[in-house]
Target: MBL fold metallo-hydrolase
Amino acid sequence: MSLEGIKIESFSLGPLGTNAYLLSRPEENKGIIIDPGMNPKPLLKRIDGMGIEAILLTHAHFDHIGGVDEIRKLKGCPVYLHDNEADWLTNANRNGSTKWPELGGPIVTEPAEYALDEGQVLRMLGLEIKVLHTPGHSPGSVSFLSGRHLFGGDVLFRLSVGRTDLPGGRTEELMDSIHGKLFKLPGETVVYPGHGPKTTIGFEQENNPYV
Model:
């Protein structure tokens, strides 16, 4: 399944350069947002006047959720998050925002409206978006797959992988997620990670020194 008619834009937000993604249908002026991070002013400017159907979270670490409250209130859109991190939005200790106060202080939002689960299919913008539960970096990490496009959060990066030394992280789970789910996808699948440049499954299979 292609993403024909869909525009994919990325925004590097906040002190950790977290990638937020906007998927939109320009002719309908509608979109969805994946991981609205901290200091979301560039993203807010871009979606001015645009209808936002949903905010999808790959996980709930503070650098990926900093813009959730502002965008949700502005656009009246629901938030989707895996149940394993259901209390991370409401608890600054769980989402890690109290661990590095120099990066901006505690982040607390209302709970997510909808829970994500393995194999779930979301239908938005005329797309089918499959949810893959890919824990390891965090217990509720998910990846969103639509056609040959994968929005993977902090699981797999170009020539690197997500860290596992934060609470709830497990190296064995991360490797299981990468080898058991992501590397089962076609090599031409484009990976849009939570930090850094995009890559492909095939390139990482051949070149990533961590897997």
Summary: The first helix runs from residue 41 to 46. The CA atoms of residues 48 and 75 lie 9 Å apart. Residues 7-207 form a domain with the Metallo-beta-lactamase; Chain A fold (CATH 3.60.15.10). The chain has a mean pLDDT of 96.
